Amino acid sequence: MLDSKNLSGGNKGKKQPNKQLLKLLQVGKKFLTAVKGLAAGLKGTKLSWPSKSVGLKLFLIISVSIIGCVLTVGLISYSQAKNIVEENVSEASYQTVKQVTQNLNNGFGNYKNLSLQLIIDTDIQTNLGILARSKDSYETLQATRGVSSRLSNYIIGNSTVNGIALIPLKADGAILTGGAASGPAAAKLKELPWFKEVSEMEGDEMWLEHQEEGLLVPTASYSFGLARLIKTQGSKDDVYIMVIEISMDAIKKRYEDVNLGKGSTLSIVNNSGNYVVAHDVDLIGKPSNVALPTEGDEGKTGRLKLNTDKGVPVLAAYHTFEWMDWKFVATLPVDTLDEDVSVIGSVTMIIVLLSGIIAIAISIVVIKTVANPLVMLRNLMVKGASGNLTVRSPINKRADEIGQLSDSFNEMMTQITNLAKQTTLSADEVLLTATDLTDASKKTAIAAKEISVATEEIANGATSLAVEAEKGSDLTNQMNSQMKEVISSNGQMTQSAIEVENASKQGTAYMNQLIQKTGMAEDKTRAMVEKVDALKESTGSIVKILDVLNNLTKQTNILSLNATIEAARAGAAGKSFMVVADEIRKLADQSRQSIDVVGQITAKIQGEIEETVGVMSDAYPIFQDQITSVKEANQIFLSVQGQMSQFVESLELTTRSIGDLDRSQSVLSDAMTSVSAVAEQSSATSEEVASLSSEQLSISDGLVKLSDKLDSVSRGLKESLSKFQINE
Description:
Layout: H1 16-41, H2 54-120, H3 122-133, H4 137-157, E1 161-168, E2 176-179, H5 183-188, H6 193-199, E3 206-208, E4 223-231, E5 239-247, H7 248-252, E6 265-269, E7 275-277, E8 301-307, E9 313-320, E10 327-333, H8 334-385, H9 401-570, H10 575-723
Antiparallel strand pairs: 1-2, 1-5, 3-4, 4-5, 6-7, 6-10, 8-9, 9-10
């Protein structure tokens, strides 16, 4: 058996926290003594808040820097030591788990070999063959006893096996048991899901977890089992499931001497994460308190830092068995490791306290050598700022920066004293000069004010003149613009008059042509009336001819009728003559019809001719009136043409007059522009002079104010210098 006790130190050092507490109390007393020494060393030193005190700033900087560095190094050392301890313990636990797993693999291998021995045992196979072939009750009973006896021999040779059973797959087969195995208990195993699964595994073993009612021995407390298929030689139908029940205590004894440390646990879990073997038997069959990986290489073996289901951090090491998917798992609480590392934390706190004492001592030296002289110099400078220029620093024997600062302070105060004396003399002289300057400035201001008033009046007159000139220039420009518009309108009227005159001439020519064409139309109309009258007479002649033709048709019809009568009298000889008479009659009827149609057409033509004659008769007076109107319009065009000629001549005279007026207007505009420019220049000059006068007046007033201010400053400077104590 492996011996791995106290891999992490076990319970070693339980009383150390008390000793460390005593050490901390002793260091605390020393710290309080050092603080009292600091208070005594600073007695009489006037200090203020750290933002206003160099001494406290130095004290805080030194203390915080030293304590911070020591604390940082201690915490880093504590963290590194903790990680190293956890890493070493985790690795040691993992190696122990691997060794225990190998040992358990050997034990599980023995049980596997036992199952193989049972399969190949000749006595068992012989008796199973008899059970398969024989129908003799006595022979069957002897074979059953032989198998049970052989199974019991194997159980006697291995004390960790509780019982063995051969369960037939046939429903009427007898269950064969050995040792304390119970037949009824074995019969119940047929109803479990794994039983059928084993029958389909072709002889491979299946490891069975603990059952609440046990496997083969109901009185056994906690156990697990091994099941596999066993076949009878010479028979295909006689197949048994061999179940070996193993005591769980036999597994626990293999690692009961292993102790990884305080609070560590050792257990076996299946692939689903449930306990198979546990330190607490009540946990068997329940989920493990840590969730282990199930996939990849990490799912088989490894070491991890995990949290339990209650949130407690633990170091977990696990390894998978060779013969099944179960894992041997070891857990160790991280808190137990921190107890071993807490010594480093205590030492760190002791060093921090010691460093605080050292920092206080250094701060006392720094305050005495640096802060106190600085406070003294500050107080002297405050007195100097209040007006006492006779103060001097007594620190003159030191060669360091503080001594140099003291010498510089004394020299500065000496120079300020000399400067104050010289400034007092200068202030007296400036006061006299300021008085004279004030009188001269007042006289200059009075003269400048009078010049400014006169210049302002001139500027106002020039401005009025410029305004009037600008108005005249604007009116002239406006008249010039209107004249240009009149010239433009006059040109347009002249052009329009010329166009109207040309149109009148063209209208007169058109009216002459219209008179000629109207006369020709009158002649044509008269000739048309005559021709229509002649056509009317011709139409009357046609009517008379149609009457003659109509009479001829009637006579022809009568003649054909008589010929028909005569042909009828002649009988057969007159038939041909009757046909001719009939045809003549038909022709006479057709002629009569044609003559009627021609008569209708002729009557219609005659009526239209009469209407045409009437229209022409009505149109002829209109043509005569039109000729009269055209002649009158021609006379109007001639009159308009004459009047437009006279209007064009008048427009030409007007254009020449407007041109003369425009030239005069241009001369007037130039003159007004010149006047306006001169007025503006004069106004600008006057304004500039007025501005200069105002500026001169402003300068004079400013000079007076500056003189008064200089006088006031001189008096104030003299009063301020009188506050300083120059002579001792």
